[in-house]
Amino acid sequence: MREELIVSGRMNPMVDPTLHIWHWQIPLYLFVGGVAAGILFFAALYYIMGRAKEYPAAVKWAPFLTPFLLVVGLGALFLDLNHKAYFWQLYLTLRLESPMSWGAWTLMVITPLSVIWIATWMKELKPGWNWRFAFLNQWETWFIRYRTAMAWVMLISAVILGVYTGILLSAFNARPLWNTSILGPLFLASSFSTGAAVIMLMSKSHTERILFSRIDLMMIGIELFLIIHMFMGFLASTQVQIDAAHMFLGGPYTEVFWIFVVILGLLLPAALEILELLGYKIPILITASLVLIGGLFLRFIMVYAGQASRYLY
C-alpha cells in the first residue's frame, strides 16, 4: 500500500464552497473611487479644453466632493485589511504587474491632487477668501500657474483609477466571472456615467446639464454593449464561464442584476435622458439618482457574484 499526501485549500471555510473574503467594504470603495475618477476626469478634460467658465460645475464645483469620496473609499479599504498596522508596506515597492500596486500608487497621487485642485478654486467659491498662512497663498499662486499641467496629471490618474477598479477584479483568474477583460472598460464607462450624474446634480446651467446628459447617455450605451458582449463571451467559452453567466440568466443574481442594474440603472435613465433631450422636463434628481444606484449595485453584484463563481465542483 502506497501512501500519498494531498495538499488542498478546500478545507478552508473562507474558500470552499465559495469565496468569502471581500465584503461590503470593497464594492463601496470601487463605487466611490469610480465616481471620484469620473468627476476628476471631466474637471481636467474641460479645463484643458478651456471650457472652465462654460462648465463651472464640472471643472470647479463637483470636484469639491472628490476628496471626501476618496477618503470614504480609503477608509473602507482600511476596514477590510486584516493587518491594518502594516498597510504602509504596500508603498515600499512598485510592481507594474500588480493591479493593487497600481491602485495604491494612483490613490497616493490623485487624493492630494484633488485637494490641491479644489484649493485653487477657493477664492472663486468664496470671494475674499484668504489663507491663514502666507506660504499657503504662495503655494496657491504657484499651483494656479501650473494648473494645466496639474490637469493633465489628474486626467491620466482618473482614467487609471476608473479602469483599475475593474482590473482589480479581472486579475483574479481563479474566479470565472471576474476572468474577463471586459470588467476594466465596463467599470471605466460606469465611472464616467456616475461622474456625469453627479455633475448634472450640481449644475445650475441648462446647457451644462444637457451636455452631461448626452455624455451619460453615451456611457450608458457603452455599458449596455459591454454587458452584452461580456455575457456573449461567457456563453461561448468554457463550462465554468457558461455557469458564471447563468448566475445572471436564471440563477440567484438574475432579478437583482436585471432590475437594479440594467433596467433601473441603465435603461430607465437612458429613456428619461432621451425625453429630456426631446424637450420634456424631467427632474434631474430622478435621472442622476438612478444612474448612481445602478453603478452602486453593479459593483456590489459583481463582487459578491464573482466570489460565488468557482472552478471547483
Structural class: mainly alpha
Instruction: Kindly estimate the percentage of residues that lie in beta strands according to DSSP.
Output: under 5%
CATH topology, by name, is Formate dehydrogenase/DMSO reductase fold
First-residue to last-residue Cα separation: 28 Å
Summed up:
The chain has helices at residues 25-48, 56-61, 66-80, 99-119, 122-125, 134-145, 147-170, 183-202, 206-235, 239-246, 254-277, 284-308. It is mostly helical.
What keywords describe this structure?
single chain, 313 residues, mainly alpha, Formate dehydrogenase/DMSO reductase fold, 12 helices
Please explain how this structure is put together.
68% of the residues lie in helices and 0% in strands. It has helices spanning 25-48, 56-61, 66-80, 99-119, 122-125, 134-145, 147-170, 183-202, 206-235, 239-246, 254-277, 284-308. The protein has one domain (25-308): Formate dehydrogenase/DMSO reductase fold. It contains twelve helices and no strands. The two termini are 28 Å apart. The longest helix has 30 residues, at 206-235.
